[in-house]
Amino acid sequence: MNALELKNVSKAYRDFQLGDISFVLPSGCIMGLIGENGAGKSTTIKLILDMVRRDSGEISILGKDNQNDFCRVKEEIGVVLDEAYFPESITAREVNAIMKHTYHHWDESQYFDYLRRFSLPDKKSFKEFSRGMKMKLAIAVALSHHARLLILDEPTSGLDPIVRDEIVDLFYEFTREESHSILISSHIVSDLEKLCDYIAFLHRGKLLFCEEKDRLLEQYGILRCSKSEFQSIPSGAVRGFRDSGYGIEALVERQKIPFGLAVDTPGIEDIIVFMAKQF
């Protein structure tokens, strides 16, 4: 069973349209959702969680329709949005008392373990938390009720590199169980490149690709060449380029370029930056 399935999902606003989005997140995998501000990442997550109603298409979460059967699976979903929403006067200890009556499978012992691991005070009011502390509290809650699917919108935003690395390790631990999956959006491409099995790239409301990370890195390369060499390359092999005035740097499909040209391995950020130049 797939953790998530989106088929031809669309949502139109007055000044923005998310169009015909389709992708599948297999169980046991991590998918990174990448895109510039306003690309549609948060809208996609809100559609999955039925926080806004889709105009068309189908969304399935853990085998259930997200509109008709969402109540049957919401216990099995851990959610962290780009802002942590708790009452300002509440403490982390009081969060535990509330969550015990919210989730049937709330694990109090695990929750307090995460508070200690994140060095979060349990008696300090939420309004006194830094942004990083607030995000860590939201992550602790998401991981403490035995969810099978984590849906995370910018969960490492506001965290320093050391804590971000710790959080990435936590997500690795979570998906060691084959029934656990993660959909994570982030502007920090390096985190996603380390963490994810699949990369989905949204640009201006369109899904430009959704592909296995390793296959992307095998399929594409960075070619640095002279302008005359560039003119000999089939146009169908080029997925984006920049002209420095001294030469050409291009994202190319390895199998379509002439033999003998040296091609470097790209990073995920290289791929998305060059592809965005085409649109």
Q: Give the CA-CA distance, first to last residue.
A: 34 Å
Could you give the order of strands across the largest sheet? 6-7-8-3-9-10
Q: List the uncertain runs.
A: none
> Structural class, please?
alpha/beta
Radius of gyration: 21 Å
Range of helix content: 25-40%
Globular, elongated, flat, extended or rod-shaped: what is the shape?
A: elongated
Number-wise, the strands total: 14
Largest sheet: 6 strands, mixed
Mean pLDDT: 92
What order do the helices and strands follow? EEEHEEEHHHEHEHEEHEHEEEH
Count of discrete alpha- or pi-helical segments spanning 4 or more residues: 9
Strand proportion: 25-35%
Write structural notes for this entry.
With 279 residues, the chain is of the alpha/beta class. Helix content is 29%, strand content 29%. It has helices at residues 41-48, 92-99, 108-117, 131-142, 161-174, 189-195, 213-219, 227-231, 268-276; strands spanning 2-12, 17-26, 30-34, 56-61, 64-65, 77-80, 149-153, 181-185, 198-203, 206-212, 220-225, 238-243, 248-253, 263-264. The strands form 3 sheets. The chain has a 6-stranded mixed β-sheet with strand order 6-7-8-3-9-10, with helices on both faces. Strands 2-1-4-5 form a 4-stranded antiparallel β-sheet, with helices on one face. Strand 7, helix 5 (161-174) and strand 8 form a beta-alpha-beta unit. It is elongated. The model has no long low-confidence stretch (mean pLDDT 92).
